[in-house]
Design brief:
about 270 residues, mainly alpha
Length: about 270
């Protein structure tokens, strides 16, 4: 179990701050091989192993002897066998693997953002280039905003081909969406700092936002897509941001979802 920022080993610590780089961490962000770690109850001194199924820790864990509810982030964690690290590999961000065609990598990342957003952002190294994240964002925006804009321009508004005149507006809407997401992420990060929420750097918030942007491709669905897409993006971005910054999902959910609502209202007013 190593720090995601500097890779310092985090065993035997009750303070959830890395002693090397001062980055905050939570034991609930790690998965372990079943029955490979040991915990000690501070109430009855009972020693027990966990978790049982190689999954993430719950926020609270019952003591098997006194049945007290234990806050997992108040306990020191140590490997049952000190000679090896039982932390399970959560998997690498598919977009960064460079092992397949870029559309396949985009699809795999899109699916992972829906099914395992925490794994996705934890599988993104802190030093991963922002250019890669922006590349993923660009494809997602093209799938969603550009396809949707072309559909409304050519099929609904100008069914006989005169929609070519609306093409510059479609491209402008796509570019505006591409620029909006990183700016939105920076605004969310500044609010986290303003509310005195410990953070791991603005680049991690931008990572979280860009790799949640696959849901914007839902904008290509006629009629419902432009409404569903922003809210789906905001919900996934809230989950990836909470995991990237190791903070409360409730806080990030409010910030992202309220922002999505305001953006839909503003764009609706402009139209």
């Amino acid at each position: 179990m190593n720090c995601s920022t500097c890779h310092y080993p985090l065993w035997h610590l009750t303070d959830r701050t890395c002693p090397e780089c001062a980055s905050p961490f939570s034991a609930t962000a790690y998965r372990f091989i079943p029955s490979s770690i040991q915990l000690t109850c501070p109430h009855c001194a009972a020693e027990f192993t966990g978790p049982d199924a190689g999954e993430f820790f719950p926020d609270e864990l019952p003591c098997p002897r006194c049945h007290a509810a234990l806050d997992i982030d108040a306990l020191a964690i140590r490997p049952a066998d000190p000679s090896w690290d039982p932390t399970m590999n959560v998997g690498r961000n598919p977009w960064l693997t460079q092992r397949s065609w870029f559309l396949r990598r985009w699809y795999d990342t899109f699916i992972m953002s829906w099914t395992r957003p925490g794994h996705l952002v934890r599988g993104t190294p802190p030093d991963a280039p922002l250019t890669a994240a922006l590349g993923y964002l660009a494809i997602s925006v093209c799938f969603g905003t550009l396809v949707s804009a072309l559909f409304y321009s050519f099929v609904l508004v100008h069914p006989f081909g005169a929609g070519v005149r609306a093409l510059p507006m479609c491209l402008a809407a796509t570019a505006a969406t591409f620029l909006l997401i990183p700016a939105w992420a920076v605004a969310i990060h500044l609010l986290l700092v303003l509310f005195r929420v410990p953070t791991r750097g603005v680049h991690r918030t931008i990572h979280a936002a860009c790799y949640a942007s696959g849901s914007l491709a839902l904008g290509a669905i006629p009629f419902l897509g432009p409404v569903i897409g922003p809210f789906a993006f905001a919900w996934i971005a809230a989950r990836t941001t909470a995991r990237a910054q190791d903070t409360s999902l409730a806080v990030t959910s409010w910030l992202w979802l309220v922002g999505a609502l305001l953006i839909i209202i503003v764009f609706g007013t402009i139209r």
